[in-house]
Amino acid sequence: MLASFSPVDVLIEYGHAVVNLIAFVAFWRQAMPLISKHGLLPVTRTLRDMSRSSTGRRFSASASSSEVQPERRRVRWKQVRQYPTLCWWFYKDHHIHLMCAAGCIGGVLLLLLPCPHRLYGTTDISLFAAAVGVAWVRAGIWLLMGVVYLSLQNVSGPFLALQMDANLIEMNCLIALHSMLLATHVLSCTLLPIQSLLGGWPLMGRILTFVVDFRLSHHMRWLIFRVMLACGMCKWYGSPMWKSLTAMTAHYETQPLPNCVSWYVHMAPEWWHKVETAMSLVIEIMIPFLVYAPWYLSRLVAFVGFVQLTVMINTTGNYGHLGIMTIVQCLPILYADEWPLSLLTARVQLPSSRPSGPLAVPAWVAVVFGVLCAVVWVCLLAVVYVLWAVSTVPLLQSFKGRVRMPPSRLVDLYSYLRRYKVCNYYAKFGSMNAERLELIVQGQREGCREWLPYEFKFKPCNPFTAPRFAFFYIHRFDWRLWFLPLEWQRARSRRTQCDVPDWYEAFIHGLTLNDPTTLSLIHNNPFPDEAPAKIRTLVVKFSFTPPLTAAAAAADRDTETDTQERPTSPPTLSQQSTGEDDSMGVRRRAAAGAAVAAVSDGTRGFSQEEQVGEGRGGKSVWRFLRCCARGRRVRWWVTRPVGVYHYYDRGRPDHSNSSSNESSEGSSDSWLL
């Protein structure tokens, strides 16, 4: 038959089933505090906003009278076309649980059900029918998982708005489409006498093979090509830090959720970071063209480059299932017989006879059913090639207007399909930040002047706590908090008011009530007995502590005789150079600074730049590692408050300040302890 067996398609399906299982399980754990009825962004509120945006009407869950049912259905389908989600009908909390459970069960079933590719060539009609049936079942599961994830994404607002989420939906739809395409292709080629039709025209058979043998691995190869090239182009035409080869110098420190490995890689020499930046541009701009090379060694270079870059990104930061999903998409690059031009010289493989057995059907039934399958197969094949053509639009958009765009009709079709996430724009790390700003949430009891900080699960907040490693788990709330201080900084530069999102105000309101659903999003609650009366959110500049300063602070702590439970942090030399002061007093700060300088092996008098440069040496990093191994409390971050993002007073809610550009009281980081 025309469609031959491709083992890489099986690896793609099983690997992506694991990715879906990870994604659904991770979001299921966070769905209730994020989008439930009492969550930060309830589904009903999101549906109400989408209803007003699409039809100008308010979303209502109550049933209407029979006279307006046709109008109600027309409005509802208009809403579904604009914002496709099953939550227009299933919006309650138990429906969200059912959707997440359906995604998890679907991932398990895809791992348990066999891939029917090897059974397509059998002459036993019972095995052949079972293979076709399993193929359609798997296609239905893939499509269901894509629809469910799309439904959850459209009602989750910013929490499921990452590019990896859109990539997951696109992969599910592509695998479902190719499963149906292969099943109908096999049926039509098996039931119809194509062998006699093409027997006299071998060249026509080869051309037809090249046209119709559109395997999943071919589409995955095109997907990884445009993803990598688009990411490279958005870097080249994006932040100037990429062209100046300084992007990786700040990446490990300013990425959304760093882990404990980020600190060590960040302390590498500056020349190494420039090499990393240059290699990233080469891998994402030049190497993608080797994906379609006819030589195995060239494709091996592309595979190793993509995997190396993916592993480096995901071991030095918490990016959830992005790494394993990218590696799965890279698998077709290695398969030696899968490059498309080889199909023109390949021998046409056709079955010698139709399957026979106890369930054999008459010839006229086979012809009729084969014609129907052929019609469906042609329609699916047309959809595949249309998606291929439409996907060129987001790829060319990554060139930022430097190339000519496709015809306007193709651009309009992409704009329509983009809402269904079957064709997406991919551009990662195009804009870089020179410094890291974090939100620190603090609470204060009634009648008490001490501010106690809340600690998040994966977001940096405590300078003496190492960034946590999340493996394949991605904490949606902590990830989204990374964007808020950046928006505050842009509003500050434009001298405008920064709008605080509704879901963040709901988070602060939940903290003032000690709401268990809200508290499940954070690591610890400093007010277990009584809810705080005031809560403020500070914008704080975070930077990795140089190894010399961190080791000196750890050694200084070992020599302290103070028996307090939480001793005061000695200031770093970088803070001494700024000349700033806090409520501790100048005398105590100077004494602590002298102790640090005495222990740090002659580092007194160095400026911040000199100390950071010296701190990137191997001896300093090794000294820092010894401090960690001995259990000393080392300092991972240098912090400095730069402003107030939000302020809430339960006793005077009308005087609560949503956002301010004024600096908080005290400029050192002693408030964080």
From TrEMBL:
Region entry Disordered, spans: 553-591, 648-673
Keyword Aminoacyl-tRNA synthetase: no
Topological type in the membrane: Multi-pass membrane protein
Domain of life where this protein originates: Eukaryota
A Pfam family: LMF1
Subcellular location, record wording: Endoplasmic reticulum membrane
The keyword Phosphoprotein belongs to this UniProt entry's keyword annotation: no
Family: Belongs to the lipase maturation factor family.
UniProt-recorded name of the protein: Lipase maturation factor
Origin species: Vitrella brassicaformis (strain CCMP3155)
Taxonomic placement: Eukaryota, Sar, Alveolata, Colpodellida, Vitrellaceae
